[in-house]
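Q: Structure for this?
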Amino acid sequence: MTKHSNQTQEENLDVLEAHLAGTLKRVTPSNDVVQRLRGRIQIPTRSEITLRLTDWRRLLLIFGGVMSGMMLIVTLARAFYYLTGRKSTI
Amino acid sequence: MSELDYNEEEVLARASQGDRDAFGQLYGHYVERIFNYVYYRTGNSHDAEDLTARVFQRAMNHIVNYTDRGVPFSAWLYRIAHNLVANWHRDRSRKQEIPIDDLPILPTKGDHPEKNLVRSQEQESLLKMIRKLPPERQNLLILKFVENMSNAEIGRIMGRSEGAVKSLYHRTLLALRDQLEDQNFNFEGE
């Protein structure tokens, strides 16, 4: 009885495998989908920006450049304000 | 370069130096597999398309960091896909969306329509059952049946030994069988 039951359960596993093979079949995306995806992944700006961001030396240089530029702008603005402010108070 | 001339090592080396054409070859070689994987994990083609694109975008952005340490490139790609699918499931559970399954249940030629209908219903319930399994068991079934991979190949992708994959597969089958028996699933098939 137990032997028969075990045999049936093993048979059920074989049938289940056959069902799985019939259900989980490979699907083929259409050419349109493949081309559309190709177009999406080759957007140059986005990937180039990300690649640039992974380069820490370049990132440091950009950061340094931005900070220097800001300092220069602030200094010029202060100098201009100092000069024009002085004139107006006299 | 045709698919026959495809030399993965060489293509990978060029792609990791920023060669877009080489990455295009990797894309051509793997897009269908990744799409299938994501398709069966998400259950709909729209999200499968979106997530497949994100898998390759992420791969392209990080390919410079990929180094072959005994882990095949396919395993690296599947890992990215697995993570994105996990995030997708997490976001979806937060949004509490109602799932719309559109997995194809293709009828077999020459069968009676009634028989096809019964078969489709059986396949649908089996798919629903598969999607309720833990992610690693779903991965295993997809790689085994959709990709026809051996236990050794699946082991390389999942980071497990061949024996562990075999054991996990057997446990998955037993769990599925028990669940299906509870639902009075027709194992005879006819």
